[in-house]
Design a protein that fits this description.
Blueprint lengths: L1 H30 L5 H33 L2
């Protein structure tokens, strides 16, 4: 039962990735409205790091979901 629980939680985490990506991408597009180049660079750096974190989370949750499913 523990493997099923871990797989379910990992599947939920994997399912959250696409909506999170869409929200952050919307913020990225909205950031282009800032006329200040320094603020734009800072916002792009922050959002790029969030994209990396989302990618790592997707990788971990996907790997957990698949590895637990085939145990």
């Amino acid at each position: 039962i523990m493997l099923i629980l871990i797989g379910t939680i990992a599947g939920l985490g994997n399912g959250v990735v696409l909506p999170a990506f869409s929200l952050i991408f919307g913020n990225l597009v909205d950031a282009f409205n800032n006329p200040n180049p320094d603020a734009l660079r800072d916002e792009m750096t922050r959002l790029s790091l969030i994209f990396i974190y989302i990618g790592i989370a997707a990788w971990v949750s996907s790997a957990l979901q698949v590895s637990v499913t085939y145990c």
